[in-house]
Amino acid sequence: MSHPPAVILSPHLDDAVLSCWHVLCGPGDVRVINVFAGSPPPGSGASWWDQQTGATDSAARMEERRAEDAEAIAVAGRSAIHLDFLDQQYEPAGQSVGGIVARLRDLIDADVVVYAPAALGDHADHERVRRAAVELAASGQRVRLYADHPHAVRRGWPAWINGTDTASAREAAAQWERRLREVGLTRARPTLHHLDDAERERKLKAVSAYRTQVPGLGADFGELDGFPAFPLEIVWTLS
Predict the structure, then answer these.
(1) pLDDT of residue 1
(2) pLDDT tier at 194, thresholds 50, 70, 90
């Protein structure tokens, strides 16, 4: 049985591993495209997030992060392409979604299944990659949207996943529904991928390679059940 090639659009240097481990370790050819993986100009100091994670030079930090990403993805036997668009923390100018789409069209063949963030949280970089994926879908590309951890579960898991009827679970469900409605997914049933113990252990090994990032993420998301190697990954079919 043949499996179509897949590309995971990762806004940052960690999103594919955090959210799409089951795809990375799946059958067939799988590549990662890290969209906002460019370095700011040398000598520009350190941005707010880089400072928060202990860096004093953002250009040097991005070199570290690209090396960490290569190590993490190698755990799954995969490799990544790094685009030179700048992360939101560097306050870039002139980076249109159209420009991102143009670069992606040069890299992605028509038969490839594209996985992109569902932008279930409130991160502008994730939203921009999702908008690019929606444009690809409109031109006939097969596109899947993934729950982008850990931002997707900042409010916890929706009630329909964990069976709890709490205020936070209802709030999470409403946030997901609103985000999915923005791209026309109002009643779409997602596919749930539960990682077994061995798969989760491998995922944790990969996530742990992001040594400059996990402590900072832990300060924001460390209380979430399953952080950093969430055992449940979720995918919706957009086109």
Answers:
(1) 59
(2) very high
